[in-house]
Amino acid sequence: MTEVVLFHHALGLTPGVTAFADELRQAGHTVHTPDLFDGSTFPSIEAGIGNVERIGGFGEVLNRGARAVEDLPADVVYVGFSLGVLPAQQLAQTRAGARGAVFCYSCVPVAEFGPAWPNGVPVQVHGMDADPIFVDDGDLDAARALVESAPRGELYLYPGDQHYFADPTLPSYDAAAAALLQTRVLTLLAEVG
Question: For residue 150, which of 44, 57, 117, 179 is within the disulfide window of CB 3.0 to 4.6 Å?
């Protein structure tokens, strides 16, 4: 089966994030869930971003993500939820050997981490079509550009306006969209496994 590194969102390594990882484990995959916040969790995106600023900014999140995989094999699939897309995307683009990438709720322009998406690395981007963070902050545009440039890129848009729609512990949870997201991720893991 496939080895996966799953990076959490701005609320931290919450029970909802670990529940998603556990679903992948139940399907037979090995899943690592680095805690970029050293055990801290937060009740809101704003509080989580405040913590990012306290620990040294987005650069420090990227550094912590890179350190988290130093002792892991290179041939992993990187999964990121929102803030966790930053280290997932950086590593998928810059650490040779990535088997795939999945970006949930966020995407940044490929040019942030290199000149082009790595050839042969499949990528999925998942977001809601009316999520103001995903749509209005440029993530949707970045996702469209990414999947156009990646030979094996897929953009999945779900109806709705929630950001953390796959986290069953939050009010933003959408069971139907979350189930579809999980099915699509498991399909990718089976294809690259």
Answer: 117
